[in-house]
Amino acid sequence: MSTDQVLEEQPARVSPPVKRQERVRMSAWKPARIIVTIPTYNEVENIALLVEQVLLADARIEIVVADDSSPDGTASLVGELARKDRRVHLLHRTREFGRGHAGRDAFAWALAHDADIVIEMDADFSHHPRHIPTLIKALEDADVVMGSRQVRGGKDLGRPAWRVMLTRVSNVYVRWVLGVHIRDCNSGFRAFRRSALEAIDAGHATSPGPAIVHELLYKSKVRNLRLAEIPIEFKERERGTSSLSFAKLLRSYVTILKLKSRGVTGRLFPK
Hints:
Structural class: alpha/beta
CATH class: Alpha Beta
Order of helices and strands: EHEHEHEHEHEEHEHHEEH
Strand order of the largest sheet: 1-9-6-8-5-2-3-4
CATH architecture: Alpha-Beta Complex
Oligomer: single chain
Number of domains: 1
Helix content: 25-40%
């Protein structure tokens, strides 16, 4: 039986039945520390406003920005924000650059700093902070929650039709290869319980690029974690330039095949 589920505007209506003992246990779960991880490269035009809005989403939130030595001064700006607010932290990366490695290091940092919940999001406002409270709430009944464009109520705004279609086709591909039932497999807006990140060993993820999204999703499935989706509005960036290229996308799709191969041969998790 699949452990995946879809959480709409009122998650309780679509969650599977929960045994009385499990319901009591989950209601007693009180996460005290929430860390939002934000991998960045050349996001100086977005990061200050994003940090401000993320901190307003929940008083328990702290932020770690994992910056790949951006030449536009992103790290310097985040450093200034961190000196003014102890809830903001900078992870200045100087080697093994890439979206996947930055995400991996940020997850490791969050776990080392006693996070109960870790939320990963992009820095360009395609993932809006207003969805964070819903992600947190949905973790009461799930181990991993994805912000989804593809479930009822989700939207994909501001992108040309060919890119929307490419996203849908790639989701079909990922679901077919990896055998997952999440609708938006490409979503990088995700919330994890601490126990989930530990179970999938997120701090040692191997994908150097965007395929870290698929790696952690597949590992979550293999570990039989409870997966859920909530609807979000995904909006194309208005400021700055994306570092995602067509070549990186192609490498990600090849990585997905490698992940499946490692899964069926028992090499998905290091010994």
